[in-house]
UniProtKB/TrEMBL annotation:
Enzyme class: transferase
Pfam families: Transglut_C (PF00927), Transglut_core (PF01841), Transglut_N (PF00868)
Cofactor: Ca(2+)
Note on cofactor: Binds 1 Ca(2+) ion per subunit.
Entry keyword annotation includes Metal-binding: yes
Record InterPro entries: Ig-like_fold, Ig_E-set, Papain-like_cys_pep_sf, Transglutaminase, Transglutaminase-like, Transglutaminase-like_sf, Transglutaminase_animal, Transglutaminase_AS
Protein's UniProt keywords contain Acyltransferase: yes
Gene name per UniProt: Tgm3_1
One MF annotation (Gene Ontology) recorded for this entry: protein-glutamine gamma-glutamyltransferase activity
Entry EC no(s): 2.3.2.13
Record's protein name: protein-glutamine gamma-glutamyltransferase
Reactions catalysed, as given in the entry: L-glutaminyl-[protein] + L-lysyl-[protein] = [protein]-L-lysyl-N(6)-5-L-glutamyl-[protein] + NH4(+)
Length: 690
């Protein structure tokens, strides 16, 4: 067409503003599908009606796989295909508006132009651009009609993740950072490193128009299992050779470390890390996504909608059988329609990147329609039975004798799993419960009906299950009841004070032998180290309750504690002439507080001082103190500051400078660690002005 290479003006600023991509810091055009963008170029000598454009993506672009489009200049925008409309023209410069269909394949495209009149001339390359999903466009599968939700679930780079346990919900900030530095390129390379792409690159690329495909592939790529994905999971309680999962404060460092190491899995992650990284990647690509925390979350390994836990006669929780009940579990919800299932199943879809069970032969999970979970339609794609069990499974607690291999049911419950299902509010840093979107009210008739329906769909109703308890076992009633009450602060560094309350439910006296244990655990309730044990023998008068105080001094549990600060306390009550009664409680201890102060006004490109204050709450010195700080638009990368050791009850003040480079409300995240306290986290909102 032209003797010289045409020079292209991508109108980066205007296009980014119109396409909600201004937050990306790229020199490349980034736009969303189903919407027009402007491009101008000069050095083309042909009349514009003779021009043909070629947009192509993937390793083997072809019209058949919708990874290549050729289109001329037309007078109107086409809804079904790529089109170009002339905007203006001068002696040798042409400005056109290019539109892609709302179901175009996403990814990096090459744009070329060719003259139709001169026949065989080869096309001239105008350059490359990246095309993303478009939640602002009504024709897109990811269309989200509520603009405030688009802002939160696509454009917001800060999140709050909920943790702890059902009795004691805690939270921490997270920097998703989906628009920072090289994150978009890393997200695109995740797609190109997936097993599907390696097996058949052209077919994989052609499916990238479908959010359910992209979501499922990325749920596999975020974990390292099967495909050398981003994060390696570790639930052992010991994290040598990597970073402890609770030490991360954002996804950026993880994704960048993955790329820098030549795509070797980053060590280590646990559920919230997998979920947070998946949130970053999906928001980056334009799929509205949020993190969800489910408290008392079932991991039903054998697909029978029942979780079995085993305890020995001393009250030790046995690491036996593949089922477990986690204090909490974090997964994702992404918003898109389900062309495969129909409009009743559109909306929020569950994706889970934590490697728990294989699906289709690899560790991936979802998308499972949240509506399908609520209605018990567990036969629908993908992985609905597993997600249904996470929020609905029945629990059976067994006493197990390793010598005889005999197990006896102690009790069963159907309302304990799936509580306080939580996510961050739209536009505010508050917690919102979405439990009612996953299931009908626990204990209601409707909820039991749905549970039966799910069992039926899975073929569990008519199948004899030799591992299930008999009706007689389920119906037996205990003679006593018990519970642990908290009788003091739940803080690392303070003694743990509890009261075991036992009540005789019968009208004759009962003799009870109680074996008590306390173990440090990880948040999945996997026992790690024994902290304490004791046994008592008591007589309970008829219909009376007795209280037994328990105290575990800080020095006794300090060495044993994991970075999750979780302790499981158990009392196994052997009632003479009656069935055994299990009393247990999961305790999550809070870290001491840390305080962040911004000293003065935060202004763009001006230094501002920040002070972080931490008081050592215990009566021994703490050493190896490190403060780590991050925050988009406030500082680049992560700041690490060594803090001098702190004597008993001493307060440290650490000061550092920030030079903010964007206006608006920004989040500063800090994480303080020392030899006695792991990952004390806090965040501060900084209002940056001009």
């Amino acid at each position: 067409i032209a003797a010289t290479q045409p020079s292209t003006n991508w109108h980066l600023k205007e296009n980014a503003r119109d396409h909600h991509t201004s937050k990306f810091s790229s020199k490349e055009l980034i736009v969303r599908r189903g919407q027009a963008f402007i491009v101008s170029f000069n050095g083309i000598e042909q009349p514009e009606q003779n021009l043909t454009f070629i947009a192509e993506t993937g390793p083997k672009p072809s019209k058949l796989t919708k990874t290549q489009a050729t289109f001329g200049i037309s007078s109107t925008v086409s809804k079904e295909s790529w089109s170009a409309v002339l905007q203006s023209t001068s002696s040798n410069s042409v400005s056109i508006s290019i539109s892609s269909p709302p179901n175009a394949v996403i990814g990096r495209y090459k744009l070329s132009v060719q003259s139709t009149s001169s026949g065989s001339s080869s096309p001239a390359t105008l350059g490359s651009f990246v095309l993303l999903f478009n939640p602002w466009s009504s024709g897109d599968d990811v269309f989200m009609p509520n603009k405030a939700e688009c802002e939160e679930y696509v454009l917001e780079e800060f999140g709050i993740i909920f943790a702890g346990n059902k009795n004691h919900i805690s939270s921490f900030g997270w920097n998703f950072g989906q628009f920072q530095g090289d994150i978009l390129n890393i997200c695109l390379s995740m797609l190109d490193r997936s097993l599907n792409y390696r097996q058949d690159p052209a077919t994989d690329a052609s499916h990238r128009n479908d959010p359910k495909y992209v979501g499922r592939v990325l749920s596999a790529m975020v974990n390292a299992n099967d495909d050398q994905g981003v994060v390696l999971g570790n639930w052992s309680g010991s994290y040598e050779g990597g970073k402890s999962p609770s030490s991360w404060t954002g996804s950026g460092e993880i994704l960048q470390n993955w790329k820098k190491s030549g795509f070797r899995p980053v060590r280590y992650g646990q559920c919230w890390v997998f979920a947070a990284v998946l949130t970053t990647v999906l928001r980056c690509l334009g799929i509205p996504t949020r993190t969800i925390t489910n408290f008392s979350s079932a991991h039903d390994a054998d697909g029978n909608l029942r979780v079995d836990e085993f305890y020995d006669a001393s009250g030790n929780h046995l690491d036996r059988g593949a089922d477990s009940i986690w204090n909490f579990h974090v997964w994702n919800e992404s918003w898109f329609s389900r062309s495969d299932l129909g409009p009743a199943y559109a909306g929020w879809q569950v994706l889970d990147a934590t490697p728990q069970e294989e699906s289709g032969g690899i560790y991936q999970c979802g998308p499972a329609s949240r509506n399908a979970i609520k209605e018990g339609d567990v036969h629908l794609d993908y992985d609905c039975p597993f997600v249904f069990a996470e929020v609905n499974a029945d629990c059976m607690y067994w006493n197990y004798d390793p010598a005889t291999r005999k197990k006896t049911l102690m009790f069963s419950e159907s309302t304990g799993i799936g509580q306080h299902i939580s996510t961050k509010a739209v536009g505010r840093d508050d917690r919102v419960e979405v439990t009612n979107d996953y299931k009908y009210e626990e204990g209601s008739r409707k909820e039991r009906e749905i549970f039966k329906k799910a069992r039926k769909k899975l073929g569990l109703e008519d199948k004899f299950d030799p591992t299930a308890p008999t009706q007689q076992e389920i119906d037996q009633k205990p003679d006593i009841s018990g519970k642990f009450k908290v009788a003091g602060p739940l803080e690392v560094g303070k003694d743990l004070s509890l009261i075991l309350v036992l009540e005789n439910l019968q009208s004759d006296a009962k003799t009870v032998n109680v074996n008590m244990t306390a173990w440090s655990t990880v948040y999945t309730r996997r026992p790690v180290r024994e902290i304490w044990k004791d046994s008592i023998s008591v007589t309970l008068p008829p219909k009376e309750e007795k209280q037994f105080p328990i105290k575990i001094p800080y020095p006794e549990y300090q060495q044993q504690l994991t970075t999750d600060n979780t302790i499981q306390v158990t009392a196994l009550c052997h009632v003479e002439g009656g069935i055994q009664v299990l009393v247990q409680r999961d305790i999550t201890l809070d870290n001491p507080a840390i305080d962040i102060q911004v000293l003065g006004e935060a202004k763009v490109n001006k230094e501002v001082d920040v002070e972080v204050i931490f008081t050592n709450p215990i009566d021994t010195e703490v050493t190896n103190c490190v403060l780590q700080v991050e925050g988009n638009d406030l500082l680049r990368g992560i700041l690490e500051i060594d803090v001098p050791p702190l004597k008993a009850s001493e307060t440290s003040s650490t000061k550092f400078k920030l030079i903010p480079f964007e206006t608006g409300l920004k989040h500063l995240l800090v994480n303080f660690s020392c030899d006695k306290f792991a990952n004390v986290k806090a965040f501060k909102i900084v209002n940056v002005i001009d």
